[in-house]
Design brief:
This protein has about 60 residues and is an all-alpha fold. Helices cover about 70% and strands about 0% of the residues. It has two helices and no strands. It has helices spanning about 10-40, 50-60. It is elongated, with a radius of gyration of 21 Å.
């Protein structure tokens, strides 16, 4: 039997693209939360306060 080696370069190429897209989406969500919190409460850094996240999870449940 002739065993051919699998070429991982194509897999790596697509994984890098998916990783970049994931990072861009994460950065966009973070920036949107930062701007939205700044508009809603006047303090854009309020997104980092634990009370903000407690309120968020209570709102969802």
């Amino acid at each position: 039997m002739n065993k051919e080696k699998f070429d991982f370069s194509l897999v790596n190429k697509y994984l890098k693209k998916v990783g970049k897209i994931f990072l861009y989406l994460l950065a966009t969500m973070f920036l949107g939360a930062f701007i939205g919190c700044g508009v809603a409460s006047g303090n854009p850094f309020a997104i980092f306060f634990p009370t903000t996240w407690v309120h968020f999870w209570e709102f969802l449940s």
